[in-house]
Design a protein that fits this description.
This protein is about 30% helix and about 30% strand. With about 425 residues, the chain is an alpha+beta fold. The strands form 6 sheets. Strands 1, 2, 6, 18, 19, 22 and 23 form a 7-stranded antiparallel beta sheet that branches. A 6-stranded mixed beta sheet has the order 15-16-17-20-21-24, sandwiched between helices. The chain has a 4-stranded antiparallel beta sheet with strand order 11-10-12-13, covered by helices on one side. Belongs to the peptidase S41A family.
Length: about 425
């Protein structure tokens, strides 16, 4: 139990979304990259030894320090010189050279921000952000958030924030610019379907429960908004209620809504998928850069192993939510309805560094039970259904075509049960 909890705290699945946060195993990649390096007595030299210590290369750091000193001595706008910002910027540049949008260095403020996402409490506009094709995109506006009220939609591309171009921004740069104290305003320039427009949004305190449940007649509808720190406990409470009604005959089916769920903890996705499939079955497989792999199997007795199940997905469903949807589809345990998901198939380890900084490192990719790696292509639903293109983002229960199709398919499942 202790080891499982430790893994859960130190590994993340990112969609980056922001969140965009995924879990991996305790694979000490950070140690592997630092234990084999040492700085020589010369302040401008760095010796790198490979792991077999048979070869050595000299990397001359004098150019770096030369530029640092020239800026310090000659840059005309003295008030703009911020040595901490230069220091962090140099590290960010090193990490960004890897050309992996999910491997990122986080300043102390950014690291705290990423952890706040998993708790579900922050101040901002209430939207999940992601990186796709090098651009900042809206993964999904949160329900009842300022972003939803302003009409933001999944797939919107963020072009500018407060008039500043978002070109070449990292995810965390975008998040840091968009978030802010409640009551303040942020202006977003967005691109949607060959149209660019600007919208002003007032920030608020955002508190998002990760699990919401309701009942329609004899069907349980459970909405899962993220795989965060509180998710498993809230999930257990909701599932106990659903299981009680299921076993007493009060309900006859369930709809699991994973739409606009950007992901979160890998352990949580395994835990939730295990509710519906029997012990010992494969949930997801991790494959590392060195060819090693790790299988995540069902480890506890699920309470809803035979309830008729429909899962709703859309292009805002990512990472951990794709694992749950894809796994239950592969085991023929659920029918998927909606749109093809985001397509986030890699795993990051979250490492806390000195001074409160952090590093998220892509350490592996994850594979579904049937062997699919869904990176960039997503999970395809069994039944494709899109909701109407609503400029005002005011889809209600009556106009939600995906949920309506799910309820009709549930009726078929109940008849066949």
């Amino acid at each position: 139990m202790k080891n499982t909890r430790l893994k859960r705290l130190t590994n993340l699945l990112f969609i980056l979304s922001l969140s965009t946060l995924l879990l991996g195993v305790g694979f000490r990649l950070g140690q592997l990259s630092t234990n084999n390096n040492f700085v020589t007595s010369h302040p401008y030299g760095l010796i790198n030894l490979d792991k077999d210590k048979e070869k050595a290369t000299q990397l001359d750091f004098s150019l770096f320090w030369d530029v640092w000193e020239k800026i310090s001595d000659k840059f005309v706008a003295r008030d703009k010189i911020n040595y901490t910002k230069m220091y962090y910027g140099a590290i960010k540049g090193m990490v960004s050279s890897l050309d992996d949008p999910y491997t990122v260095f986080l300043t102390p403020d950014e690291n705290k921000m990423s952890k706040d996402d998993l708790v579900g409490l922050f101040e901002g506009i209430g939207t999940q952000l992601g990186l796709k094709n090098g651009e900042i995109v809206i993964i999904a506006p949160l329900k009842k958030s300022p972003a939803e009220a302003a009409g933001l939609k999944a797939g919107d591309i963020v072009k500018k924030v407060d008039g500043h171009s978002a070109v070449n921004w990292t995810l965390y740069e975008a998040v840091s610019k968009i978030r802010g104290k409640r009551g303040t305003k942020v202006s977003l320039t967005l691109y949607r379907i060959e149209k660019e427009f600007t919208v002003d949004i007032i920030r608020e305190e955002i508190k998002v429960p990760s699990v919401e449940i309701e009942f329609e007649k004899d069907v349980a509808i459970l909405r899962l908004t993220r795989f965060g720190e509180d998710t498993n406990d809230l999930w257990d409470s909701a599932i106990n209620e659903i299981a009680s009604k299921w076993h007493s005959g009060q309900i006859r089916a369930m709809i699991l809504d994973l739409r606009d769920n950007p992901g979160g903890y890998l352990d949580s996705s395994v835990y939730i998928a295990s509710e519906f499939i029997s012990e010992g079955k494969l949930v997801v497989k991790q494959e590392y850069y060195n060819g090693q792999s790790e299988n995540h199997l069902v480890k506890h007795q699920g309470k809803l192993l035979d309830i008729p199940l429909i899962i709703l997905i859309n292009k805002g469903s990512a990472s951990a939510s794709e694992i749950v949807a894809g796994t239950l589809r592969d085991h023929k345990r659920a029918k998927l309805i909606g749109e093809t998901t985001f397509g986030k198939g890699s795993i990051q380890e979250a490492i806390d560094l000195k001074q409160g900084a952090g590093l998220h490192v892509t350490i592996a990719k994850w594979i579904l039970p049937n062997g699919d790696w869904i990176n960039s292509k997503g999970v395809t639903p069994n039944i494709k259904v899109g909701n109407p293109d609503d400029e005002n983002n005011t889809i209600t229960r009556d106009t939600d075509l995906q949920l309506e199709r799910a309820t009709s398919e549930v009726e078929k499942l109940k008849l066949n049960k």
